[in-house]
Amino acid sequence: MTSTVDPTQELAAFLRTRRERLDPQDFGLPSRRKPRRTPGLRREEVAELAGVSIDYVVRLEQGRGLRPSADVVEALSQALRLTPDERTYLFDLARQRPRNVDKSATTAPPQLARLVADLSPLPAMLMNHRYDILAWNGEIARLLLDFDTLPQPQRNAMWLCLMHPGMRDFYVDRERVVREGVAHLRAAWAAHPEDRELADRITEFTTRDAEFAHFWGERDVKVNGRGHKVLRHPDVGVLAVHFEVLRPLQDPDQRLVIYRAADDESQSALDRLRPR
């Protein structure tokens, strides 16, 4: 069995990596004759920017069991110039956001399953926060993969991208797709610290795939609500799609993913995938 999130240690590591990536020149800090031994800002500089003591920053970065208040988390977010997604991640690690009991769906609610089918001819699928694929229509099955042929544990978008032989070369910009997927999964990991199944998935990915392990170690956090992918389809060739990710209010841990052709040539390719 794998352990779930250790928020104290992850908060410590996250603060260190965010501090070390900053350029002191961006803050107008005076140059020093003595060169910096480590990249980024010093702890005392972060402490001053956040309005907290140096000792407090040291103890946070050493994982010594502190639980910063919401005000301190906000001050650190501003001092470290976190992106909105990174700020949310830090609040999650500090346990400063109200939480619902984790009841992550493993099956699609009937209403959402019908909606996925009704979105035809647009390719669409429903996933949970773990990237488990819960429902899909025929268009996306013909575009990506016939999910009906897979055992349930393999119906996971990240697993397919990393482990399925037929998907290794499917994305033209594979590195970006994997990197963004990892950053999205990290945000879900912090928001669901009791989800042992998600923790087991991440352990599997980091153990079996060096690319995933490398990107996971960078601690990037980004939630993609829309984007662009270029696909290398075995039957119709290269095509480009835009995707949109929607979260139902009734089931906020689920994601409705809808694909649209990015150009006329790609639309023609999608049309050729339709059954005659």
From TrEMBL:
Alphabetical list of PROSITE patterns matching this protein: HTH_CROC1 (PS50943)
Signal peptide start and end residues? none
Amino acid composition bias (Basic residues), ranges on this chain: 31-40
| SUPFAM superfamilies given in the database record | lambda repressor-like DNA-binding domains
Q: Which residues form the HTH cro/C1-type domain?
A: 40-87
Region Disordered, annotated ranges: 22-42
> Which Gene3D superfamilies does this one have?
3.30.450.180, lambda repressor-like DNA-binding domains
Q: What is this protein called?
A: Helix-turn-helix transcriptional regulator
What species does this protein belong to? Streptomyces atriruber
